[in-house]
Amino acid sequence: ELKIEVVLPEKDRGKEELSAGGKGSPRAYQGKGAARHFHADERLPAPHPYPGTQDCVEAAVCHVKDLENGQMREVELGWGKVLLLKDNGEFHALGHKCPHYGAPLVKGVLSRGRVRCPWHGACFSVSSGDLEDFPGLDSLHKFQVKIEKEKVYVRASKQALQLQRRTKVMATCISPSAGHSGSTNVLIVGAGAAGLVCAETLRQEGFSDRIVLCTLDRYLPYDRPKLSKSLDTQPEQLALRPKEFFRAHGIEVLTEAQVVTVDVRNKKAVFKDGFKLEYSKLLLAPGSSPKTLNCKGKDVENVFTIRTPEDANRVVRLARGRNAVVVGAGFLGMEVAAYLTEKAHSVSVVELEETPFRRFLGERVGRALMRMFENNRVKFYMQTEVSELRAQEGKLKEVVLKSSKVVRADVCVVGIGAVPATGFLRQSGISLDSRGFIPVNKMMQTNIPGVFAAGDAVTFPLAWRNSRKVNIPHWQMAHAQGRVAAQNMLAQEAEISTVPYLWTAMFGRSLRYAGYGEGFDDVIIQGDLDELKFVAFYTKGDEVISVASMNYDPIVSKVAEVLASGRTIRKREVETGDMSWLTGKGS
């Protein structure tokens, strides 16, 4: 049995992480012990799922004939529910809620030995409960199943039933950094989903040397997609992991720390304050920077891009009972507009296209969503741009459009896209394309050995679209890329193969989307757009390349699973309206 522990010097026990702007060095996490690496065939021992019989509950939950192959059901054990399923003739019992946002997995998709979440597409192994595809960080508990006298019994830990999530066992940092605070084994630039998952994956795979994660943010890694969906949310509510987690697993986080240059020849990153940090392996996950308006009055007060929790919170405070203008009818802009309708006196949206989401979801779906917003008092100014922001005593008062319309505004949110935050790499020798993205291969490797990149700032080959080089700035994709990068830092030869999956929420309704629809030439819609109960298949030639739905779960997760299996969905299959081939048992 393999045992790993970290011994912290007395003076460092209980010490919280210091920000880069704080007193003392934030880069001097102390640890003692010899470095220990694991071979590919070694794994950390999993804790026993049932620490004591008094902590367990066991019950007969059904007859063996109650479930057919491919079926799932929730069963009650008294202390909590369990997801019971039958796959390839075997019964399995798992946690019943997705650890990401709590979706009921019984409404998801069972296929190819895994359960896919109906809401956001995360996948879990039926044999282990392990998280196999994202979003989210935690796995499911796996419970014991036995068959006696044709009855199915499930035995589970009471604690596991109540927790409904399981964090994988991780190695602890035992690499000495005392006296060597200027060097690290792995440096991760960017603490979004890609950076955090990379760090966690390294520890899960047994890597026990030093990991440093640096971020421009003031906070530990947080759930950024929530910013535009729930602008009132406080930073502590957004945290993906508590600070104790990072301390326990020896993942050092440098907040408010900006890397300004990377010296790939000497394997060194230089920070804005002059500090230099050597690395053995480097992950670049800097994300993107929001585009801003370039018009007269662009510097007036109360004009925001939603980048931080402070941005989001200030927008809500300023909009309450007043006039809000949102520039841009993409996902961020429309989420903000939807949230502000119950707070602001008026909400107006300015957009260059004819309909919201037009390039992404097409004309018909975009128009249906536009009607939903109009029914909620949102005013649209389409096919126009902002020509001037007018102020009164330095603060925004009016937004002037190129169509000559003047819109009253006390606060303005700009959501007109983003550019990769890669300016610091221009002289590094790391390849950037003409738009500033970092090209990587299927293993998330850049052109420089030992340097990987992931997240919003990369272009990568999309496996199921003939390895076409694409940029997909989705939360779920960043998770997947972070894991692949970590696996290849450990020479595991993993390749990125996940099917893109995203979601948005507006007025209590969720829209789900899977695939990569750029360049679609037709949209096949089943259901009722007026009732916002539909599924839209986006096709290119004879092939379905993406799917979107509202109130049609788990159709998007099912399509994602079909695409992940490598099967091509033909246009004629979705034109008939008969989707029985997609809705399999257990859905």
Task: Note the main attributes of this structure.
587 residues; alpha/beta; Rieske Iron-sulfur Protein; FAD/NAD(P)-binding domain; 5-stranded parallel beta sheet; 17% helix; disordered N terminus
Topology:
Elements: E1 56-63, E2 72-76, E3 81-87, E4 90-95, E5 109-111, E6 114-116, E7 123-125, E8 131-133, E9 142-148, E10 151-157, H1 158-163, E11 186-189, H2 193-204, E12 211-214, H3 226-229, H4 235-238, H5 243-248, E13 251-254, E14 259-263, E15 268-271, E16 276-278, E17 281-284, E18 288-290, E19 303-304, H6 309-319, E20 323-327, H7 331-340, E21 346-351, H8 358-361, H9 363-374, E22 378-382, E23 386-392, E24 395-401, E25 406-408, E26 411-414, E27 418-420, E28 438-439, E29 451-453, E30 458-462, E31 468-470, H10 475-489, E32 501-506, E33 509-515, E34 522-528, E35 533-540, E36 543-550, H11 555-564, H12 571-575
Parallel strand pairs: 11-12, 11-17, 12-13, 17-29, 19-26, 20-21, 20-26, 21-22, 28-30
Antiparallel strand pairs: 1-10, 2-3, 3-4, 4-9, 5-6, 6-7, 7-8, 9-10, 14-15, 15-16, 18-27, 23-24, 24-25, 30-31, 32-33, 33-36, 34-35, 35-36
Pfam family, one: Pyr_redox_2
Domain Rieske: 59-154
Subcellular location: Mitochondrion
Description:
- This protein is of the alpha/beta class and 587 residues long.
- The chain folds into 4 domains: 112 residues, Rieske Iron-sulfur Protein (3-layer Sandwich); 204 residues, FAD/NAD(P)-binding domain (3-Layer(bba) Sandwich), CATH 3.50.50; 114 residues, FAD/NAD(P)-binding domain (3-Layer(bba) Sandwich), CATH 3.50.50; 75 residues, Enolase-like, domain 1.
- Helix content is 17%, strand content 30%.
- The protein is built from 12 helices and 36 strands.
- It has a 6-stranded antiparallel sheet.
- It holds the Pfam family Rieske.
